[in-house]
Amino acid sequence: MFETIFVDAANWLRNLLISINLSPFVVEVFLHVVKMVVILVFVLLNVMWLVYMERKVSARFQCRVGPDRNGPYGLAQIFNDVAKLISKEMILPTHVNKKMYLLAPILIFAPPMAILAVTPMGEGMAAVDLNLGLYYFVAIAGINTVVVWMAGWSSNNKYSLVGGMRAVAQMVSYEIPLLLALVGVIVLTGTLNLNGIVDAQKSAWLIFTQPLAFFIYFIAAMAEANRAPFDLVEGESEIISGPYTEYSGMGFAFFFLAEYANLLVMAIMTTTLFLGGWLAPFGWTFIPSWLWFIIKVYFVIWVVMWMRWTFPRIRIDHLMNLAWKFLVPLAIANIFVTGLAKYFIGI
Amino acid sequence: MINWLGVLIFLLSGAAFGVIGIGISYLIQPRTKNRYKLEVYESGIPVKASAWVRFRNQYFTYALIFVIFDVEILYLYPWAVSFVELGLSGLIKMFIFIFILVLGLWYAWKEGAFEWR
After folding, report:
1. How many domains does chain A have?
2. Shortest Cα distance from B101 to chain A (angstroms)?
3. Residue A268: which of A137, A75, A101 has the closest Cα?
4. Is pLDDT above 80 for B44?
5. For chain B, give me the number of helices (H) and strands (E)?
6. For chain B, domain boundaries
7. Closest by alpha carbon to A187, among B101, B66, B86, B96?
8. Residue A258 has pLDDT above 70, yes or no
């Protein structure tokens, strides 16, 4: 019953709309809007939870307790944070490029939302079933770079400029190993459709058949999402807050939340591509597929947070060397090995 | 076609969310006038010059190499999708293509494009 609860709800709504004689086109558009609202709420709840979880997990790694004053286990902290972020003044400094400065926080939420449109979050639970799903993901993920650079440049602040430059250099460099690692995934699955990629993992998850690609992808995706140890973009101890230095109030809040939305997207893509998406391990199908998906996503997020407190932030030249001199050759070697193995052994 | 309309709805929803969020915040936020608040957020001493300056070209080199590799990877994806249909000839041709890509990487490496000076 719980397995198909969301699919059933969508079908019920579709039948209801058809029964009141709406044209099929209007019905589909309406359904897409409903799905969009559901996913937006899903993202917002998760992002709010992640802000709290980040603080709690960080605290536990440092033998602290973390927020515990507001409500049970400090859970009311989540709502206090939101109320505070909304009710603060958003300063519009006199020295900035106003159009770009205001556009950046508005656009920063578009890429994560657009990517979540195509990810299957359970059996048959992709909002939009695109044949070019993976290609689309790669294309949309690149927009983030532009938005961060818009924020960095338009602020007319030296720290923002350095942060923006670093953001472009880092995100652009790590996009290459990320794209190359995904070639191995596509060779094995033979499709760009994310549903198809999950289906192809029924015999074995891709983390077992493509361990090297997973390793490269995970590092590159962490750098793309600007997570520590690759958080040079806003290295607090060096450049205040990087591209977001001049932002305050809701403008800053959007960058802050988008960072967690990107973390969520990164974990969701890792799960979909390498950890079998919504497939149940060991045949434990008594837990519904969408719940398995959430469990896996939160496991990946937990690993990312664990890494944050395990590795110190690396230097910019080391960062670049890691991408170009280590990950790119490794990813190319992975394509060679995968191609030969697929042709001669036929996995 | 309806799929791409769905994608467009999602893409616009992100931006709409941004507009609504900042709009709500604009309606309820306090506003006070203060000259110093509008200044550049730096160390506190008077700010020298604008930040819109020429910046080191090291970053530009990376961007340039990125564009080259990105376009090359664009050709790898269709090959990877139709890997089985293309068979051995496709495999050999693509290995030659990747080999040229590796040559490009080696050349950029040798010329010191990845050295942080």
Report:
1. 1
2. 9
3. A137
4. no
5. 3, 0
6. 2-110
7. B86
8. yes
Q: Which of A39, A86, A173 has the CB atom closest to B28's CB atom?
A: A86
CA distance A150 to B9: 23
CB contacts of A141 in chain B (<8 Å) are none
Q: Which residue of A has its CA nearest to B58?
A: A169
Q: Is A186 in Cβ contact with B80 (below 8 Å)?
A: yes
- Inter-residue contact A289 to A280 (CB < 8 Å): yes
Torsion of CA A53, A56, A58, A64, to 10 degrees: 180
Contact (CB, 8 A) for A185 and A306: no
ipTM confidence? 0.86
Q: Which of B28, B88, B102 shows the shortest C-beta gap to A87? A: B28
Task: Return the structure tokens found at A321.
Answer: 């060397």
* pLDDT in the model for residue A94: 81
A168 and B55: CB-CB below 8 Å? Answer: no
Q: Which domain holds residue A166?
A: 96-344
pLDDT of the residue at A217: 92
Quote the CA–CA distance of A258 and A264 in Å, as a whole number. 9
Q: In angstroms, what CA-CA distances link A177 with A172, A224, A230, A331, B73?
A: 10, 11, 15, 6, 10
CB atoms within 10 A of CB A119: 25
User: What pLDDT score was predicted for residue A216?
Assistant: 92
Between positions 14 and 33 of B, the ones with CB within 8 A of A are 14-15, 17-19, 21-22, 24-26, 28-32
Are A176 and B76 an interchain contact pair (Cβ–Cβ within 8 Å)? Answer: no
Q: Which residue of B has its CA nearest to A324?
A: B114
B window 70-109, beta carbon within 8 A of A? 70, 73, 76-77, 80-84, 87-88, 91, 94-95, 98, 101-102, 105, 109
pLDDT over 90, % of chain A: 6
Q: Search chain B and give the residue with CA nearest A340.
A: B91
| Over residues A55-69, mean pLDDT | 87
Containing A218, the helix (H) or strand (E) segment is helix A211-224
CB A152 within 8 A of CB A160: yes
**Residue A24 covered by a domain:** no
The fold for domain B2-110 equals: Methane Monooxygenase Hydroxylase; Chain G, domain 1 (1.20.58)
The mean predicted confidence, pLDDT, of chain B is 83
Q: Is residue A317 part of a domain?
A: yes
Helix and strand element counts for chain A (H, E): 16, 0
The token pair that represents A164 in the structure block: 């923006």
